[in-house]
Amino acid sequence: MPYPKGHKMKVRNKIVESAAQAFRANGIHNVSVPFIMKGAGLTHGGFYSHFDNKEQLVAEACRYAVSDTLALLQEAADQEKQDPKINVVIDYYLSTHHRDQTEIGCIIPALSVEIAHSSEEIRQIFTQELERMITFVSNLAEMDLSKGSALFSSMVGSLVLARSVNDPELSDCLLSAGKQHAKALVNT
């Protein structure tokens, strides 16, 4: 009996979602295809009926993860009653929840270092997705792309450092200082 229409796309989406979650939490090189497939509730053997290779999956997972983050940030901004709406995005992005929930967080701080050493194809996709994030932040903050790039870079850097240290007080301080600095950039 054949699968229902759209079954293959649903399975593919489950794999991409599993990969995005795994890559955000563990990086690209620390995650195997069998691990991703298990996370999707599937066997390893079916991977190649959906993807040519792991690189293709990394590219799709980056797109998916950025879209997921943008939807989350847009929802937070839409719920904000006061301006500037960017402040609620800054507060969420530099929150302890976002810091601690790497598997559902922004993929940009999670993979930037690894992406720098990846193939040109993956770097191109990552570049496009980074540009989407910068455009979103710039538009929400009502600033040009140069200032928006500085703002988002500051937010990413603060999050990376807060995730990197093993001192909870220092980590919280880095998030707090990052929020303060990011909001100051909006007001200049």
Automatic annotation (TrEMBL):
Highest taxon in the source lineage: Bacteria
Organism whose genome encodes this protein: Paenibacillus brasilensis
InterPro entries: DNA-bd_HTH_TetR-type_CS (IPR023772), Homeodomain-like_sf (IPR009057), HTH_TetR (IPR001647), Tet_transcr_reg_TetR-rel_C_sf (IPR036271)
Pfam families recorded: TetR_N
Coiled-coil residue windows: none
Domain HTH tetR-type, first and last residues per copy: 9-69
Keywords: DNA-binding, Transcription, Transcription regulation
Gene3D superfamilies for the chain: Homeodomain-like, Tetracycline Repressor, domain 2
Name assigned to this protein: TetR/AcrR family transcriptional repressor of nem operon
Residue ranges the UniProt entry marks as DNA-binding: 32-51
Matches recorded under PANTHER family: TRANSCRIPTIONAL REGULATORY PROTEIN
Signal peptide annotation: none
